[in-house]
Design brief:
This protein is an alpha/beta fold. The protein has helices at residues 3-11, 28-33, 51-66, 81-93, 111-118, 128-134, 160-176, 190-197, 216-223, 251-264, 273-285, and strands spanning 22-25, 36-40, 71-76, 96-102, 122-126, 150-152, 181-186, 204-209, 235-238, 294-298. Strand 7, helix 8 (190-197) and strand 8 (204-209) form a beta-alpha-beta unit. Helix 3 (51-66) crosses helix 4 (81-93), helix 3 crosses helix 7 and helix 10 (251-264) crosses helix 11 (273-285). 44% of the residues are buried. Bound molecules: pyridoxal-5'-phosphate (PLP).
Length: 315
């Protein structure tokens, strides 16, 4: 681990060197259904660089620091949790950051844009079609025109390094308790792929898609693994808890999140964890999980996104 990153882990992160807590939720419905529901509080890792965004960035940052990368370039929407985390990490670790942002430069910046620009990230606003084209560059040196010292980080931080960081969730869980099922929200499904890559022996991994028409995510998960790799089949993606599409919301979702927060004292985000948790409780209601099953949901963070009501954004 590079000195600067180790120092950041030691001094800045609440759970940089030790496992984030996993706690048991209790309520009458869980007792009644006899499902043990636990939550892994990755949202508590840090107030800015939290959840799966820290997990996915950790080894990319280490690689950058160890390999004379001076600028990390990435892409995201005007509410992106990924860019928010990257910009903050760059500032802390003295790495330059730059981003392609989807859509025209807004007259009034979202709280996310304001932050990332304050953190020193260079912002380049591009059209939606240009944005879509950037998605084809999946390797760190593939961005057209990339210079020496620059590192291209694809959408959602989807790299090998990300899988490595996410896999540490599973090793932490193993040191904490054995779970029958792990639940996680999916955007690009990089986090899900990381959990799958960690070889979870007895656990089944359920992804909950934040996007509509997410069947393609199954292939995307496969694409993370080299040909010939025996991808385990202990995972699946629930496609029906997107609430109308990415970042779309309705009263039913918001009410559920409010009740959840009142009951368990834990805030969820509107784009990912709120929808996943709604799905988990819906499945519990439908007796999807076996009696006595021990389920853990990963709180992937994303709470900075709750600062706005606008519904036009991308993770
Ligand atoms: C980005 C994000 C996700 C989606 O992660 P992927 O690895 O892209 O699937 C899930 N939850 C939160 C809170 C996020 O910010």
């Amino acid at each position: 681990m590079h000195d600067r990153l180790q120092n950041f882990l030691n001094t800045e992160l609440e759970y940089g060197n030790k496992a984030s807590p996993v706690i048991k939720l209790s309520s009458p419905i869980l007792d009644f259904k006899q499902v043990e529901l636990w939550i892994k509080r990755d949202d508590l890792i840090h107030s800015v660089i939290s959840g799966n965004k820290w997990r996915k960035l950790k080894y990319v940052l280490n690689h950058a620091l160890n390999n004379r990368v001076d600028t990390i370039i990435s892409m995201g929407g005007t509410y992106s949790n990924h860019l928010h985390a990257l910009a903050f990490a760059g500032k802390q670790l003295e790495l330059k950051t730059s981003a392609f942002i989807r859509g025209e430069k807004p007259a009034i910046f979202t709280p996310t844009l304001r932050d990332i620009s304050d953190f020193g990230m260079e912002l380049n606003f591009i059209s939606r079609s240009e944005y879509r084209e950037l998605r084809q560059y999946k390797q760190n040196d593939q961005l057209p025109g990339i210079l020496q010292g620059e590192y291209w980080l694809p959408e959602g931080g989807a790299t090998e390094f990300a899988l490595q960081g996410v896999a540490e969730i599973v090793s932490e869980l193993h040191s904490q308790l054995l779970f029958d099922s792990i639940c996680v929200p999916c955007g690009t499904a990089t986090t899900l792929a990381g959990l799958v890559s960690a070889e979870v022996s007895c656990s089944h991994i359920y992804g909950f898609s934040a996007l509509k028409n997410a069947a393609f995510l199954n292939q995307d998960v496969n694409n993370f693994f080299v040909e010939g790799y025996q991808l385990p089949d202990n995972w699946s993606i629930e496609p029906d808890y997107h609430f109308g599409g990415f970042a779309k919301q309705n009263d039913q979702l918001l009410l559920f999140m409010e009740e959840f927060e009142q009951t368990y004292g834990i805030e969820l985000d509107k784009v990912y964890t709120g929808k996943m948790m709604y799905g988990v409780f819906d499945l519990i209601q439908r007796d999807f999980f076996k009696k006595g099953e021990r389920v853990v949901v990963i709180h992937t963070g994303g709470l900075q996104g709750n600062r706005t009501k606008n519904s036009d954004f991308i993770g």
